[in-house]
Design brief:
Layout: H1 2-9, H2 13-16, E1 17-18, E2 24-25, H3 33-38, E3 39-46, E4 51-57, H4 60-70, H5 80-85, E5 92-94, E6 100-102, H6 103-107
Helix pairs in contact: 1-4
Length: 114
């Protein structure tokens, strides 16, 4: 399960598409297993003059939220919408003496980290 969530969470458009001269979908035979897991749907439609392909990936923010909950990086009550709205990430550093301080405080210490 964690492998599937990680595949979705860390998938990138360039894993499925190329765009050197127009946008092209990579052949499925070139995709890794992780990329296959991240693809939710592939739809094809065609008219007399055009052919369209639509590739939809699974919800990346939802997968990141589930991974963060599993790893206890966020509160269990967090939702993907709450996490997507955040603009700041807090990082805390455990000092050699066992105290925990915000990274910003450590970076701004006048004589370096203490």
């Amino acid at each position: 399960m964690l492998d599937e969530l990680a595949a979705i969470a860390f998938a990138r458009a360039c894993d499925v598409l190329t765009w050197p001269d127009g946008v092209w979908v990579r052949p499925s035979t070139e995709l890794s297993g992780a990329t296959h897991a991240a693809v939710k749907a592939v739809e094809e439609s065609q008219t007399d003059t055009t052919r369209r392909l639509k590739v939809t990936l699974h919800d990346k923010v939802a997968a990141l939220t589930l991974l963060a909950k599993y790893l206890k990086l966020v509160d269990q009550s967090e939702t993907p919408a709450n996490l997507a709205e955040r603009t700041t990430v807090s990082i805390f550093i455990t000092q050699p003496d066992g105290t925990v301080r915000p990274l910003r405080e450590v970076e701004q210490a006048p004589n370096g980290p203490t």
